[in-house]
Amino acid sequence: RPVRALYSNCMAKSTSLQTPPQRVTLKEVARAAGLSQSTVSLALNRRTDCHLSEATRRRAIQVARELGYRPNWRAQALARKQTFTIGLVYARRAPFMSAVNEAIISALAETFNAAGYYQLLVSTATADPDSWQDVIRPDRLDGCVVLNPMPVEFGQILREAHLPMVLCNLISDLPVPQVAADDRNGMQQLMNHLLDLGHKRITFLYRARHPHYSVLHRRETYEQVMQQMGLGQYVCVRNDETVDPFIEDFVSGRNRPTAVICHDHVMAVYVRHACWKRGIRIPEDISLACFNDVFPIEAMTPPITCISLPGDQIGRMAADMLLERIARKQREPSYISTGPERKWVPEHLVVRESTSAPRKEG
After folding, report:
1. What is the pLDDT of residue 91?
2. Cβ pair 342, 172 in contact under 8 A
3. Residue 141 and residue 326: Cα distance in Å, rounded?
4. Which residues pair with 179 in a beta bridge?
5. 136, 154 Cβ separation under 8 angstroms
6. Buried/exposed code over 199-222 (b: 16+ C-beta within 10 A; e: otherwise)
7. Which residue of 114, 137, 311, 354 shows the fewest CB atoms closer than 10 Å?
8. Checking phi first, is residue 282 left (phi over 0); if not, alpha (psi -120 to 50) or beta?
9. CA distance 13 to 11
10. Do the Cβ atoms of 300 and 272 come closer than 8 Å?
């Protein structure tokens, strides 16, 4: 008998564990708070047109938390014809969230969260395209931000999805809003700084097969400025896989610029390390500058002069543009963009100890 009683007690506990707790309703929250259901609903939805007093809104939220109320997401989505979800689309197996991208994605998340939206990471780097193309649909997402690198199939996706989209840190001829850093002006600032110091033999260094638009914009601006200043004979663009060929040429005397501009911070760190190994002094023997004011650029010895990209501003601007497109789509369901709308975010020069006037020869 004791064993049977113990078994019955265990079964009862097992059954109670398997039975999901009863969901708290909005009506119960309203009754406990002494408010109407519509008032509680308005407070919990955190709508921008909420006319409730702060005390009433806080009371509704506090009672809902105490009772363990959870809004019915599906019901809200059906009622408002929104999913409250933004897709972050990228053509990698894992999101690239370091350096400038970290600031961009953080700003995107902060802006979307403040507007009541969640973010869904959508990787297009899968063997089965249907697995992610099925996600980029109006019944799954309210809109999406396309991050670098852009999926090859994006044009086809755009035609089929009819979904508000924004390209972030990307440019394209597609009829989609785009937010990107003004790399042409950034390179102009950096070139002006080096030229003012007295440099003439300046080299631009980037990694081979880099697909981002910034390579083209920075390279073209570098070449244009050199030509405009009558320094065409000193134009030197290196696109090696590593920094070793550049360093070897410098040491051997085959190519000895007085300054080098690296496309990004990663290459600048490798150049600094290679110079240290070969006894090349910065900035005494060669001035070093780069793009991206991110770790460890400021902590290097010496700290590196760079162009700072406003990743947080890019992210906020892209998010605001997408939210505006989502709102317009709700007002005008048949609205179709006829061309790209580009916004260029300005960069700024940060001068540090890695650049100085070139050493006088002879």
Report:
1. 81
2. no
3. 10
4. 168, 343
5. no
6. bbbbbbbbbeeeebbbbebbbebb
7. 114
8. beta
9. 5
10. yes
pTM of the model: 0.79
Structural contact between residues 306 and 297, judged by C-beta atoms closer than 8 angstroms: yes
Strands lying side by side in the sheet with 342-345: 118-123, 85-90, 143-146, 165-168, 178-181, 342-345
Q: 153-181: per-residue pLDDT in tens?
A: 777 777 777 889 999 999 988 888 999 99
Query: pLDDT tens, 140-156?
Result: 899 999 988 787 777 77
Pairwise CA distance, residues 240 & 245, whole Å = 7
Dist CA 147 CA 104 (whole Å): 9
